[in-house]
UniProtKB/TrEMBL annotation:
Annotated coiled-coil segments of the chain: none
Gene Ontology process terms (BP): protein import into nucleus
tRNA processing recorded as keyword: no
SUPFAM superfamilies hit by this protein: ARM repeat
Region feature Disordered, mapped onto this chain: 337-384
This protein's name: Transportin-1
First and last residue of the signal peptide: none
Pfam families linked to this entry: HEAT_GCN1, IBN_N
Length: 384
């Protein structure tokens, strides 16, 4: 109990020394220099500073409290701390860990979007170090902050929760944490109709993490989920529409039974979205046709719509001006070199959810040599 008392006093009493703060700010400024020799020297100094137990206190202080500094410097301080958490978290003193955690929670609603995002990254990095079980107040605190009247607090906590859902989906559905999804999923669904598009987008993205795994906490609310998705079908915000398309594509794989009664309307909707003025939305919608092609009901569901779908897909095949410029560049660069066999053989694209589902089942992604376009790096290069 004496140790707890000492830690409590340290926690209350910790304040940065002016000289220490000055040195760290100087380092943060130097690390933004384009000169590689300067960067190397900074890197070395940062490693040395890790030997001081309260170095990480300074970093979190700059991120969350030092509002006199510019945002990129504060954010950089948080990102260096994130790297320290990744590399040395098990060596942190308990009092330092507690200080960082409490500072993170107090800064979730920082007025700056950049600082909010950095705090969210830091929270989820700490959580992914096995700390979700050792930080029992985290999820209830973030969940309560969703109801804040302060937009920044609501948006910041949603940003952090989305990252936690992405990184720790399995743990969130485990007894180890007392199944927080039973509370979180109904909570997320309430925000599908929020006035802010950013919040609506966060809410869908959080729920989407639990579709492919058929998480029980989501499956019992599947009808409410669908009703809210359909409500957002024509949302003004492209990010929201993108997440709606993603959800429907995954639901096609795992809850076809619930989609069949609405299939005509869903196909009509996807015909519209495949022509969406936002190319990111159109790309997400295009996944739908690939996933539908894998389903038994494809012929029956799609036949009445083919006369409209085929022209839309063919129109989507037309290269944009940028594509043409890039392709010309490629041709001019190597027009004298004969094509290799793998450059010209056909490629067969599988839907993304197909790949995700198999990677979940096998613990790793399938590697199909004919399918060079199915890894994550090239997916980002897919255009319409």
């Amino acid at each position: 109990s004496i140790l707890i008392l000492i830690q409590a006093i340290m926690k209350m009493a910790w304040q940065p020394q002016e000289e220490g703060l000055r040195q760290i700010l100087k380092l943060l400024k130097e690390s933004q220099s384009p000169d590689t020799a300067t960067q190397r020297a900074v890197q070395q100094k940062l490693e040395e500073l890790n030997k001081f137990p309260d170095f990480n206190n300074y970093l979190i202080f700059v991120l969350t409290k030092l509002t006199s500094e510019d945002e990129p410097t504060r954010s950089l301080s948080g990102l260096i701390l994130k790297n320290n958490v990744k590399a040395h978290f098990h060596k942190f003193l308990p009092v330092v860990t507690e200080f960082i955690k409490s500072e993170c929670l107090s800064a979730v609603g920082d007025p700056s979007p950049l600082i909010r995002a950095t705090v969210g990254i830091l929270i989820t990095t700490i959580a992914s170090k096995g700390e979700l079980t050792a930080w029992p107040e985290l999820l209830p605190a973030l969940c309560n902050m969703l109801d804040s009247q302060d937009y920044n607090v609501c948006e910041g906590s949603f940003g952090a929760l989305q990252k936690i859902c992405e990184d720790s989906a399995e743990l969130l559905d485990s007894d180890a944490l007392n199944r927080p999804l039973n509370v979180l999923i109904p909570k997320f669904l309430q925000f599908f109709r929020h006035s802010s598009p950013k919040i609506r987008s966060h809410a869908i993205a959080c729920v989407n993490q639990f579709i492919i795994s058929r998480t029980q906490a989501l499956m019992i609310h599947i009808d409410a989920f669908l009703e809210n998705l359909f409500h957002l079908a024509s949302d003004d915000d492209p990010e929201v529409r993108k997440n709606v398309c993603r959800a429907l594509v995954m639901l096609l794989e795992v809850r076809m039974d619930r989609l069949i009664p609405h299939m005509h309307n869903i196909i009509e909707y996807m015909l519209m979205r495949t022509q969406d003025p936002d190319e990111g939305v159109a790309l997400e919608a295009c996944e739908f046709w690939l996933s539908l092609a894998d389903q038994m009901i494809c012929k029956e569901a799609l036949s009445p719509h083919l006369t409209r779908l085929v022209p839309i897909l063919v129109r989507g095949m037309k290269y944009s001006e940028i594509d043409v410029i890039l392709l010309k560049g490629d041709v001019e660069e190597d027009e004298m070199i004969p094509d290799r066999e793998e450059d010209i053989r056909p490629r067969f694209h599988k839907s993304r959810t197909h790949t995700i589902k198999h990677s979940d089942e096998n613990g790793e992604e399938e590697d199909d040599e004919d399918d060079g376009m199915d890894d994550d790096s090239s997916l980002s290069d897919w255009n319409l």
